[in-house]
Give the backbone structure.
Amino acid sequence: MKRALITGITGQDGAYLAQFLLEKGYEVFGLIRRTSSPNFWRLDYFGIKDRIHFLEGDLLDTESLNLAVSTAQPDEVYNLAAQSFVGTSWKQAVLTTEVNALGVTRILNAVKHFAPKAKFYQASTSEMYGNSHLNGKQDENTPLHPRSPYAISKLYGHWITINYRESFDMFTCSGILFNHESPLRGIEFVTRKISDGVARIKHGIASELRLGNLDSKRDWGFSGDYVQAMWLMLQQNQPEDFVISTGINHSVTDFCEAAFQSAGIQNWKQYVVIDQAFIRPAELNFLLGMSNKAREKLGWQPKKTFEQLVDMMVKTDLDRLSHYKK
Ligand code: NAP
Ligand code: GDD
């Protein structure tokens, strides 16, 4: 039985990955931070909480990471933990850097010392491109020009992962994943904010949805498809970095239109209010990923379409909030 250690197991991708690895017969260890209110709702969604070995730790705390890795003795480590919200990264730039940049060095050192043969996955991001592109698209060779403290911290995590591969002969991979969503997405990210907001309007418990920049475009995929790509990267004979994306992008406006349509609400524009509070100090206008390398070498491709993803998110939020229905 293979053993996997997942940091960020209580997050969106952590839950989908844990579910995927358990189905594959892995013994799954999950790093969790101490919080006053435990945060297991995503693992409960899959009913898998009791099948996971939880290890207390924090990417800010070296000793706890050393202990977690030496206890789990993993074959594979997935470093998904992060301060992952771009908007917050301007307000908490130092914390974001500590967790997303130095945190990667801390966990890499723990792996180097206590499980040097383990394969390591780092959750890198299309945010690292900023507005940089080649012919309107981004792939593994596109220059990086991060435009938020989040993206800059992730750039460090990306390069330290590559550096440990080149310096210490460790099996480390960096997955450059474009936006991926699901009904388990955090409520502050725009897709889930919209699906939740639409459900509230449909049930009569809200009358408007306040958003920022409706023109920005993202290459949105489904988290359940993307965690499979993480696993595939670690099943290769040689460690490499891969872009994971759908190759199709949509604007925030497109997402709104599709979401209101899924709920059967006409004239969606009357419910959307532009609020300056959600406009960012620096924006990424569009992301559009070319994942040809992953498709050829990993045999990976996304399964869920944009329309199916939006519909799934809206229907789940409609169900979730149905007991509030007026
Ligand atoms: P998420 O839902 O925000 O989950 C983040 C996880 O990190 C949570 O489990 C959180 O724990 C944990 N965490 C935060 N700070 C920590 C710390 N100091 N020590 C230990 N754990 C900590 O994020 P996600 O959407 O699943 O994304 C997973 C990873 O992929 C992140 O690294 C993100 O930056 C990256 N990524 C995401 C996307 C995307 O579109 N989703 C795209 C590219 C890259 P709590 O539950 O205790 O808060
Ligand atoms: N969150 C949010 N809230 N975003 C809004 C809003 C709003 O009210 N209105 C418009 N937007 C726009 C943002 O300005 C951005 O252009 C776009 O919607 C997407 O924002 P988010 O959903 O917050 O995601 P993100 O693209 O900034 O970051 C996500 O994807 C990255 C990969 O590209 C996160 O998951 C990151 O962790 C991830 O690395």
Observations:
- Residues 84, 86-87, 125-127, 178-179, 188-191, 193, 211-213, 216, 218, 252, 278, 280, 283, 287 surround guanosine-5'-diphosphate-alpha-D-mannose (ligand 2) (CB under 6 Å).
- Residues 186-218+248-285+305-324 form a domain with the UDP-galactose 4-epimerase; domain 1 fold (CATH 3.90.25.10).
